[in-house]
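Renewal narrative, Specific Aim 1. Our central claim is that a sequence can be written position by position from structural information alone. The example that follows is taken directly from our test logs and has not been curated for this report. It begins with the structure tokens describing the chain, in the order in which they were read.
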């Protein structure tokens, strides 16, 4: 299907939104602004009441739900199968993953605003202090653990790009999340997603955050998740 930069933009009915999702899922990025409630079931469970939110459905099935404050989405799910169904004057958007088993339900109300567009990609180059730390670890893996060997760096996963992957003396992979300044709980959750992803593939891994500093709350959470911290500076 040949698409223009913006294939569709404007307010639409729930019937029209249903048709647009069916037509453009896996073909374009679908951006929705609408009043909605959200339910998630999987490794945990959560519910979010009705509020106006930003919903993004990417071509690979990644779904993100944002509110008006904060950097992180309140819910997100990578590479899901997305379907839409009209029920009780609401549109249910259902995103399902099989491995691990997860389900994200978004109940859309009223008249949503939608943009359908085809986004593109380009080579990603990381520069600055974080790049320097990654280079340091890749050149000298013993900074993370004595006897560790470099396996790879900047590896793409459904959850983002892993900065460095090492192999420890015990033969297990070590997933390293690098932060150029102070690591916070967002870094902990990101590392945990990487570790859980590799474990879901049957690979034994350990996780490490490498940064000059870490917040006390993040360090506590890191230990609760059985992950590790290594202080490293350029």
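The sequence written for that structure reads:
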């Amino acid at each position: 299907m040949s698409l223009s930069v913006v294939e569709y933009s404007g307010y639409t009915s729930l019937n029209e939104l249903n048709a647009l999702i069916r037509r453009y899922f896996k073909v374009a990025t679908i951006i929705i602004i609408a009043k909605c409630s959200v339910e998630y079931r999987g490794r945990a469970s959560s519910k979010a009441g009705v509020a106006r939110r930003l919903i993004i459905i990417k071509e690979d099935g990644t779904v993100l739900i944002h509110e008006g404050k904060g950097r992180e989405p309140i819910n997100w799910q990578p590479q899901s199968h997305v379907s839409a169904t009209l029920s009780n004057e609401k549109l249910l958007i259902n995103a399902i993953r099989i491995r691990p088993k997860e389900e994200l339900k978004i109940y859309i109300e009223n008249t949503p605003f939608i943009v359908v567009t085809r986004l593109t990609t380009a080579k990603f180059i990381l520069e600055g202090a974080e790049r320097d730390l990654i280079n340091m670890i890749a050149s000298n893996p013993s900074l993370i653990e004595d006897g560790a060997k470099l396996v790879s760096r900047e590896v793409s996963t459904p959850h983002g790009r892993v900065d460095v992957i090492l192999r420890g003396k015990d033969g297990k992979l070590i997933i390293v999340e690098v932060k150029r300044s102070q690591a916070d709980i967002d870094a902990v959750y990101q590392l945990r997603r990487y570790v859980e992803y590799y474990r879901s593939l049957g690979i034994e891994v350990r996780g490490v955050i490498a940064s000059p500093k870490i917040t006390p709350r993040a360090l506590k959470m890191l230990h609760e998740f059985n992950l590790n911290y290594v202080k490293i500076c350029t």
